[in-house]
Write a structure and sequence with these properties.
- The complex is a heterodimer of chains A (314) and B (253).
- Chain A is mainly alpha-helical.
- Chain A has one domain.
- Chain A has 14 helices and four strands.
- Chain A has helices at residues 5-22, 26-51, 59-75, 81-104, 108-128, 130-133, 154-176, 179-189, 191-196, 201-227, 237-250, 255-271, 279-293, 298-313, and strands spanning 139-140, 144-146, 149-151, 229-230.
- A two-stranded antiparallel sheet of chain A has the order 1-4.
- In chain A, strand 2 (144-146) and strand 3 form a beta hairpin.
- In chain B, a hairpin with a 2-residue loop joins strand 4 and strand 5 (65-66).
- Chain B has 253 residues and is an alpha/beta fold.
- Chain B has two domains: 1-79 and 170-253, P-loop containing nucleotide triphosphate hydrolases (Rossmann fold, 3-Layer(aba) Sandwich), CATH 3.40.50.300; 89-169, no CATH class.
- The chains are: A mainly alpha (314), B alpha/beta (253).
- Chain A binds chain B through residues 1, 171-172, 174-175, 177-183, 185-186, 188-190, 192-201, 207-208, 211, 253, and chain B through 50, 52, 71-73, 76-77, 81-82, 84, 88-94, 97-98, 100-105, 107-111, 113-117, 121, 125, 128, 164-165, 168.
- The structure holds adenosine-5'-triphosphate (ATP) and magnesium ion (MG).
- Adenosine-5'-triphosphate is lined by residues 13, 18, 36, 38-44, 85 of chain B.
């Protein structure tokens, strides 16, 4: 909110547009695509966690549902990719809607445990339904095709996820600056004040939970087609934690923070490629250090510092 | 017919009756004070009226409808709003956004309308922002229109809460100790502010410890003691009521 909306979006547009031209090869393009996919998921998750104040430690489960809906329905049943993606989104949204009311009545640790459990159950189902999912070995996924066009090349995928990211950023920035978005933030600030103002807090929490689940599911489908292969690790607990870490490090209740968090933590495993299995440890360390020194996350902390500086000068 | 009619309202907490068989009526266009010693049940009464607590027994009529066991968000739709004794400001939001939250029910708060910033929504939102700024000036916190809630001092936050509740354009506004913690000049401002409300169509129920303020601005006063109704009447009747004098002995009321 520190920057005018058109400025931030314009800057993002420029960065996304010139990036493929300056990236030396497909390896970097691949990293950029993964960053953008994560960024979209993290924006949705930040709306739930950072803005509305409702934690979810199970969102990778929805990623798994989307990915496997696309994989199974296109590979095994010959569905068109868009229809499979839609089916996954409806499945994720339906499941989210079903569990949201009982789950979102819980607060704090209880909500964390319940969403954690949800994610773990989804992950276990994907691992154990070997006949359908290929089990822990995963399964391969056909190319995404729409109206006879196939999205196969690295370049094509880059432009697809770039548009998705730009669109999601725009929608999210709009939302937080609208009555519905203020209602979400009011729930975080004071649930009782929100209710007295006429906000149906349960309904609002359910809706944002479902919305973020659907968005995550769609990105799960995108991931499956892009990688052309899915394994259940996509949906596991560690992936959920990684997503939450991106929210926290970039900054709670900050859309651009979500972008930064996704970019940094997606780059990290590449940087740490030498450290066999050490990346989870480093993730944990980064989370702890951020919580101690920048508890608001990177973008909000920097914005505050800038504000303080300007005040001092004024 | 009265705007609010409460009959035999009772709320127990583990055998203790915080509010015990309280009945009273509030006429539209008046200022009604609720007074009583600490722990008398004033805030509990507010919580019962606004649906924050459900009563153990008793009934309530508000704005012409039976309003028993309604949650706060439903009562808000009927035109009820309140402030809190312990501040309930959203510290994660800007000052003006806090006030705009109060206008929630009058705006299009659909998720998709918000995401796509429909032109009608944008126009209504801009008007709402201007109204919110106007309300902030009205309650005397115009200096904080561009501030974040977390940067505001206590006295300003108290009044920001009043601005938020007024943004709902309520029929009935319950103020729980709006002058607590304010200095003398701020108290005077709040005093003047409350008196402007009934002519503007807002009926006021006021919990306040400042007896001078209460006696000056109230049309009627309800006195609670140990959860029970001790007396109810005009300021003059209350001042001369022997039970009230006994309960308030030494406090100069
Ligand atoms: N949620 C609760 N659980 C248990 N007891 C409560 C609860 N809320 C209020 N009480 C009790 O009910 C009684 C009345 O409290 P209440 O807050 O309504 O008093 P009050 O008149 O507002 O006092 P004050 O002037 O100090 O604000 C007190 O004894 C209090 O401890
Ligand atoms: Mg009280």
């Amino acid at each position: 909110m520190a920057l005018p909306r058109s400025f931030g979006l314009g800057a993002l547009l420029v960065v996304l547009a010139v990036l493929p031209a300056i990236l030396p090869n497909d390896f970097y393009l691949d990293v950029a695509i993964r960053m953008a996919i994560n960024a979209v998921v993290v924006i949705g998750l930040n709306l739930l966690i950072g803005y509305t104040g409702q934690i979810s430690l199970g969102h990778a489960g929805f990623l798994g549902i989307g990915a496997y809906a696309s994989a199974i329905l296109t590979a095994n049943y010959g569905w068109p990719s868009a229809a499979a993606m839609l089916a996954g989104a409806i499945g994720s949204g339906g499941l989210a809607l079903l569990v949201a009311r009982p789950i979102l009545r819980l607060k704090g640790h209880y909500l964390a445990m319940a969403t954690l459990g949800l994610g773990i159950i989804i992950s276990i189902v994907l691992v154990n339904e070997v006949a359908l999912t290929g089990g822990p070995d995963g399964m391969s996924v056909p190319n995404f095709s729409l109206f006879g066009f196939e999205i196969a090349s690295e370049q094509a995928w880059y432009w697809v996820v770039a548009v998705l990211l730009l669109g999601t950023t725009w929608l999210a920035l709009n939302l937080i600056d609208s009555p519905a978005g203020r209602a979400l933030q009011a729930i975080h600030g004071s649930e009782i004040a929100a209710r007295v103002a006429g906000i149906d807090t349960t309904a609002a929490k359910v809706r944002i939970f479902v919305l973020s689940a659907v968005l995550t599911s769609i990105m799960g489908s995108v991931t499956a087609h892009y990688l052309a292969f899915v394994t259940p690790t996509l949906s596991d607990f560690f992936h959920s934690i990684a997503l939450v870490t991106m929210v926290v490090i970039g900054g709670m209740a900050s859309i651009y923070g979500s972008l930064l968090g996704a970019v940094l933590l997606t780059a990290l495993p590449q940087v740490l490629a030498g450290l066999e299995g050490g990346e989870t440890v480093v993730f944990g360390l980064i989370l702890i250090v951020t919580m101690i020194f920048l508890p608001r996350g990177l973008v909000p902390s920097l914005a505050l510092r800038r504000l303080a500086l300007r005040r001092r000068r004024a | 017919m009265s705007l609010l009619a409460v009959s035999h309202l009772t709320r127990e907490f583990g055998g203790v009756k915080a509010v015990d068989d309280v009945s009273f009526q509030i006429e539209a266009g008046t200022i009604h004070a609720v007074i009583g010693p600490n722990g008398a049940g004033k805030t509990t009464l507010f919580n019962l009226i606004t649906g924050v607590y459900t009563p153990s027994s008793g009934t309530m009529r508000f704005a012409g409808t039976e309003a028993n066991h309604q949650p706060p968000e439903r009562l808000a739709r009927l035109g009820m709003s309140r402030t809190f004794q312990n501040l309930q400001i959203c510290m994660n939001m800007s000052a003006i956004a806090n006030v705009m939250v109060g206008a929630h029910l009058r705006l299009n708060h659909g998720l998709f309308a918000g995401m796509f910033h429909l032109p009608t929504l944008r126009r209504a939102d801009r008007a709402c922002r201007e109204e919110a700024a106007e309300l902030m000036r009205f309650v005397g916190v115009g200096a904080y229109i561009d501030a974040h809630a977390s940067e505001m001092p206590y006295g300003a936050l108290k009044r920001l809460e009043i601005a938020r509740s007024l943004a709902a354009k309520p029929k009935l506004l319950l103020l729980d100790e709006p002058a607590a913690g304010l200095n003398d000049s701020e108290t005077h401002e709040v005093d003047a502010l409350i008196q402007k409300l009934p002519p503007a169509g807002v009926t006021v129920v006021l919990v306040e410890h400042d007896m001078k303020l209460v006696m000056n601005i109230s049309d009627r006063i309800l006195v609670l003691n140990y959860g029970r109704r001790l007396a109810e009447g005009t300021p003059r009747e209350i001042r001369e009521n022997p039970d009230v004098i006994a309960a308030y002995l030494g406090t100069g009321g």
